[in-house]
């Protein structure tokens, strides 16, 4: 996941953006929009770097990652604040005087097309404030001491869940269940599955 951290040396990142052909920059922005709207898991900066190199643009992986981070940062901020395309472009100009006119026109055009959707998606995530399950691991073990098990040497299920919160950070949550609690948990999941089949 991409962090909300703004790359250092913004002018250098913006100069690298200026080296990109407009169609390649537009394609990269489209991939960032798709990721921010959760239509793709992530922006593959290695694949993007390869695309740049095939187009004759020699930027290392860190430089490409910085471009993606910078634009993701600004798009997230603009979505959160519900900025218009004009205000977004103005803020970009305030952050660096190295922006090319063509790059700013592309940002303006794409934000005009996608900004409202990204803002609505951000609002939905904020209202729901629900993370996304990334991974779940479990194991069966025997209790040697526990607050909830009445007798020692009782089996229990240990569960570790990795959850991506709305900001993209991965959180780990773990819990333990007795066999009876697990059976109830299993029944509830079975009920959910049967309801989903009817939809």
Describe the overall structure.
- The protein has 199 residues and is of the alpha+beta class.
- It is 57% helix and 15% strand.
- It has seven helices and three strands; from the N terminus they run ααααααβββα.
- A three-stranded antiparallel β-sheet has the order 1-2-3.
- A hairpin with a 5-residue loop joins strand 2 and strand 3.
- Helix 2 crosses helix 4, helix 3 crosses helix 4 and helix 5 crosses helix 6.
- The protein is elongated and about 70 Å long.
Helix content: 55-70%
Strand content: 15-25%
| Cα shape | elongated
Instruction: Please count the beta strands (DSSP E, at least 2 residues each).
Output: 3
- Gyration radius, rounded: 23 Å
By secondary-structure content and strand pairing, the structural class works out as alpha+beta
> Strand order within the widest sheet?
1-2-3
Average residue pLDDT: 83
Poorly predicted regions are 1-6
Number of helices: 7
Sheet of most strands = 3 strands, antiparallel
Order of helices and strands: HHHHHHEEEH
Intertermini distance: 31 Å
Question: Keyphrases for this structure?
Answer:
15% strand; 199 residues; single chain; alpha+beta; 7 helices
What are the SSEs and their pairings?
Elements: H1 10-18, H2 22-36, H3 45-54, H4 61-81, H5 85-95, H6 101-128, E1 132-142, E2 155-164, E3 170-178, H7 179-198
Short description:
57% of the residues lie in helices and 15% in strands. It has 199 residues and is α+β, with helices and mostly antiparallel strands.
